[in-house]
Amino acid sequence: MSQFLESLKNRRSFYALGRDVKLSQEEITELIKDTVKNSPTAFNAQSPRAVILFGAAHEKLWNIVEEALKPLTPAEAFANTQEKLAGFRNAYGTVLFFKETDTVKNLQEQFALYADNFPDWAEQSNGIATANTWTALTTAGLGANLQHYNPVIDDAVAKEWNIPANWQLRSQLVFGSKEAEANEKEFLADDERFRVFN
Questions:
Q1: What is the bridge-based pairing of β-strands 167-178 and 17-18?
Q2: Exposure of 6 by Cβ count < 10 A (0-12 exposed, 13-18 middle, 19+ buried)?
Q3: Closest to 10 measured CA to CA, from 110, 101, 107, 144
Q4: Using alpha carbons only, what angle is made at residue 32 by residues 128 and 150, rounded to the nearest 5 degrees?
Q5: At 100, which helix (H) or strand (E)?
Q6: How many other CB atoms are there within 10 angstroms of residue 32's CB atom?
Q7: N or C, which terminus of the chain has less Cβ within 10 Å?
Q8: CA distances, 120 to each of 101, 109, 127 (Å)
Q9: Which residues of the chain register pLDDT less than 50?
Q10: Which segments of 11-149 does DSSP mark as H helices, in order?
Q11: pLDDT at 1
């Protein structure tokens, strides 16, 4: 139990990321695949999807984000945006997490009593797969942070990597070598978050 909790505690948002990674791309890919496969989903729907980007593909993603944000960002603030995106671009890779929507629709049709819940359960499944992958990468010695530039980049991402129309982009997990420590984390008081009854 303590080893599991240590892994959770060590999973933090690392923003200073680099490319001094000891694992091979194949090892990282297998780690991500195994983690997503073994993350639970409601009704065993297996709706989370992942696209793993390394090298030029990883850099291309952050170029796409920059191009998408430029017309949406005030000119005086764009230099700060570019600096932030350069930090992501300097990382080793990115995992794009998607929700496969046809599975959700099929389950809604099969189980009408729970139809309203399946979209929420799919989001929960996606969150579990994402958090587990983040923790797995951390346990392997990498740093990561989670971004949400969807839906601004959805169309360009779909076009660039031929993403099926029934895959809905949900998040972008940036990963690489830890080049600086994570910020200190603050917690709410337990009595604000937990209730226990016998």
A1: antiparallel
A2: exposed
A3: 144
A4: 60
A5: strand 93-100
A6: 21
A7: C
A8: 12, 15, 11
A9: none
A10: 25-37, 55-69, 78-89, 101-110, 118-139
A11: 65
The candidate with the shortest Cα–Cα distance to 166, out of 114, 100, 120, 88, is 100
Show Cβ contacts of residue 185 under 8 Å, excluding neighbours closer than 6 positions: 12
What is the C-alpha end-to-end distance of the chain, expressed in Å?
23
Picking from 95, 115, 80, 113, the residue whose alpha carbon sits closest to that of residue 39 is: 95
Give the integer Cα–Cα distance in Å for 97 and 50.
5
Q: How far apart are CA 135 and CA 93, in angstroms?
A: 16
By DSSP bridging, strand 93-100 and strand 17-18 are unpaired
The string of DSSP codes covering 39-61 is S--GGG---EEEEEEEHHHHHHH
Which amino acid type is present at position 111? F
Closest C-alpha among 167, 174, 173, 172 to residue 122? 167
Residue in this structure with the two tokens 């709706």, named with its chain if needed = 47
pTM (global) more than 0.90 = yes
Placement of tokens 């090892």 in the chain: 27
